[in-house]
Amino acid sequence: MIIKKISSSVNHGLLALILVLTLPALATALASDDECKRISDKLASVTLEECLLSQLEQASAYSSVGSPILFKDYTPVEGRLPLGRVLLIGGIHGDEYSSVSIVFKWMNTLNEHHSGLFHWRILPLLNPDGLLAEKSQRMNSNNVDLNRNFPMQDWQNATRDYWENITKRNPRRFPGNYAVSESETQYLVDEIQRFQPDVIVAVHAPHGIVDYDGPKNGPYKLGRLYLNLLGTYPGSLGNYAGVQLEIPVVTIELPYAGIMPKPSEVAHIWRDLVGWLRKNIGANQETDPS
Ligand SMILES: [Zn+2]
To answer: Which residues are registered as beta bridge partners of 212?
Structure first.
């Protein structure tokens, strides 16, 4: 759903309605200090103070071994209709540290400068078990690659065929025993249904590119990362949300899983992303010439 600009006389009522409809289900508790300690102990680029200041909340869902899924909502501000809703996700793969750390840096930016331009819902680490395990791993604690576990038509055959014949049964690409078998994947499927994002941004590493699935065109360039369409994998988020649901999915592939881009590049990617969203999402969307 795209939020269109409407006259100011009905702004407030609609804004209240949007807030009620898009609130995360049963999400009330702030993340415990212990959750932030676990995250900052694991990620050299995220301090305990930074994590605590981000005031993450616990969703009503848990990882396979019971870690809370954490999120942060930057809601519409009074008197301004956001151009649209953006769902930003880091850490779908638990060993891609930079994909989590950079989301914390962008939350720092929003903490200072959130203007209500967009309604952001941010999940900095969708796969806490993979990240926070003693030895971090791509998969969740059931050894499932979450980014192959999203639903699609003929999921069983498509993912199994890809896993067995293309990846040669690579355990790092195991799609699970059935679609949406994992609590983390189920949570994201539900969250997309609840939040109705106009765009999804997923952060990964280490391919050093921008990938895109969905209608129209993706961003040609974000910071030093250029658009390079990798194609969609069976069971991936890009396939599920971008191809099937036709929600634009921007995948940011950072150059290194274990090394953060420089602060200037972190800021540059963010500026370019927001610039692209301004042009392409919601009432003011234009056709991106790229
Ligand atoms: Zn990844």
So the answer is: 250
pLDDT reported for residue 16: 47
Query: What's the pLDDT tens digit per position in 67-108?
Result: 999 999 999 999 999 999 999 999 999 999 999 999 999 999
Q: How far is CA 63 from CA 32, 88, 251, 257, in A?
A: 16, 18, 22, 22
Q: Which of 252, 243, 245 is nearest to 225 (CA)?
A: 252
Q: Are 140 and 129 in contact (CB under 8 A)?
A: yes
**C-alpha to C-alpha distance for 173 and 233, rounded to whole angstroms:** 10
Check residue 17 and report its DSSP letter. H
Query: What is d(CA 275, CA 269) in angstroms, rounded to the nearest whole number?
Result: 10
pLDDT in tens, 97-138: 999 999 999 999 999 999 999 999 999 999 999 999 999 999
For residue 86, give Cα distances in angstroms to 109, 156, 157, 188, 247. Answer: 15, 30, 32, 14, 11
Give 253 Cα–ligand 1 centroid separation in angstroms. Answer: 8
CA of 208 to the centre of ligand 1 (A): 11
pLDDT tens-place string over residues 229-248: 988 899 999 999 999 999 99
Q: Which domains does the chain have, with CATH numbers?
A: 30-280 (3.40.630.10)
- Distance between Cα 92 and ligand 1 center (Å): 6
Peptide bond into 206 cis (omega under 30): yes
